[in-house]
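> Could you send the Transposase prediction when you get a chance?

Sure thing. Input:
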Amino acid sequence: MQKKYIVRLNDQERRTLDAIVKKFSGSSQKVRRAQILLAADADDLAWTDAAIAEAYRCRTKTVENIRQRFVEFGFEQTLQGKKRAEPARPKCLSGQEEAKIIATRLGKPPAGYANWSLRLLAEKVVELGICDSVSHETVRQTLKKIA
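Output:
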């Protein structure tokens, strides 16, 4: 089958990829992308996608995606990967709020309770006015940081 995306590396790109592969510099993903690009180069090795996938223990779809990314977005973005524009989600609590939650947890539980539950602690945090609202899962993640 005719390949839709053909990888053709220039000498500078080939030297950069060789250096990454020889030194194993960067993340493992970066090294694997470099190996795949070198093997897929139409002017040099020109391996088939199946041979590349078998040699570097990945799927043929991964090889196809790397070829496509190289043609559409260029050498740097293919090698480095796509950068996130912003963090996935901002933090719910500030450091001071987290410290107050931890301090509350270390104190005695309310009368009638032997231990703090996550839901009970979340209710108490809202009751004390530490924050407007907080879920038991956020409390769990906060307490997990110190464990």
